[in-house]
Amino acid sequence: MSELDPIALTQELIRRPSVTPADEGAMDIVQRTLEGLGFACKRMRFGEIENLYARYGTARPNLCFAGHTDVVPVGDAQAWSREAFAAEIVDGMLIGRGSVDMKSAVAAFAAAAGKAIAAGQVKGSLSFLITGDEEGVATHGTKMVVEALKAQGEILDHCIVGEPSSAETFGDMIKIGRRGSINTWITVDGRQGHVAYPHRAANPIPVLIDLLAKLQNHVLDEGYTGFQPSNLEVTTVDVANGATNVIPAQAKARLNIRFNPSHKGAELAAWIEAEAAKAAEGFGGTIKVEPVVSGEAFLTEPGAFTDVVAAAVQDVSGAAPELSTTGGTSDARFIRDLCPVVELGLVGKTMHAVDERAPVQEIRDLQRVYERVIERYFSKFG
After folding, report:
1. pLDDT tens readout for residues 245-286
2. CA distances for 7 relative to 34, 361, 366, angstroms
3. 301 catalytic, yes or no?
4. What gap in Å lies between CA 34 and CA 223, rounded to an integer?
5. What is the predicted pLDDT for the residue at 1?
6. Counting CB atoms within 10 angstroms of each CB, which of 7, 84, 207, 228 has the fewest?
7. SS3 label, residue 275
8. What is the C-alpha radius of gyration for the chain, rounded to an integer number of angstroms?
């Protein structure tokens, strides 16, 4: 097979408008490409979501690349300078939804894998874990693929997630951990009544305000090695009351906590529920708490694996990358149950934005970094 062009492959993927949960043939392109390189491909469809696990080789170590083919919606299509799924190159920039996050990384690693296979560098196995549900609720994507791989006894030794990890310049940052996330819905049900006769009602608003204040004012921690302090943010407060003389029957709020490894999601959920129970004492109504942990905090300790990845970046960029735990969540939170994982990709400034775009040269540079990762990895662990 002729050498893969990561730019052409990225364009082909962008031209499939795979807005979660739609696939529009994007996974077929990945599968066809990897099969052409000699990978054994297994499709895993859960619900509406297309997933793919592909492996070249059967021996260990198994270095996995993880990514996603789904993208977020375009938003205001008229605000784009080019059609969002046309994948046009303008002044050295590849414009299109998914150019940064993260069809380019899938293409770059496939091209790098092709070169490594042709050069006989794979002293073990290379694998791809690709999902179509990273930008959505993430219930039928990587999470379920990981569960299936564990049940099948499949072993991943290390993993690189191709999320856009660079902050300001290409290669300036690698993500070696992420904070966890918990969303909580709080509903306070009181008793509606006339404002002139408050003794006949049970106003849920003061109860909710006091509870939120207590939660907000609590210092969760002072930080954790490599992590910033955990933070709790109230994201909505809702009372559907259009009248000026009515005490409402219900008040709702939602909050999110981004937490470092000082905490577990279940422990934070139990804390919120305990505070809600205290707030309900003496109140003539009820408080309902619904916590959902979307990911636990994790850290891949700096060591031989992170050294390999950082050295590969420096080989191409000329500078050592920062090892960081900043940012939101990614599918790395699921993969960490299988093996050590890091995130390495393009600069993320335009991801999810109008005119999402990636410099063509940086996509080629990313391929070169992945080539060096593969070469260094099997030299070290193979």
Report:
1. 999 999 999 999 999 999 999 999 999 999 999 999 999 999
2. 16, 9, 11
3. no
4. 42
5. 54
6. 228
7. helix
8. 24
Q: Check residue 321 and report its DSSP letter.
A: P
Nearest to 61 by CA among 122, 114, 106, 146: 122
Helix axes 360-381, 6-14, angle to 10 degrees: 110
Which listed residue (133, 134, 356, 362) is catalytic? Answer: 134
Q: What is the dihedral of CA 279, 280, 285, 288, to 10 degrees?
A: 90
CATH assignment, 6-178+297-381: 3.40.630.10
Identity of the amino acid at 300: T
C-alpha distance across the termini of the chain, in Å? 25
Q: Where in the chain is the domain with CATH 3.30.70.360?
A: 180-295
Fold held by 180-295: Alpha-Beta Plaits (3.30.70)
Question: Quick check: 150 and 88 in contact, CB under 8 A?
Answer: no
134 is catalytic: yes
Which of 304, 348, 318 has its CA nearest to residue 330? 348
d(CA 357, CA 353): 9
| Nearest C-alpha neighbor of 236 from the set 216, 210, 256 | 256
DSSP state of 264: -
Neighbours of 352 (CB within 10 A): 14
Active-site residue identified among 12, 23, 50, 70? 70
Express each pLDDT in 29-49 by its tens digit: 999 999 999 999 999 999 999
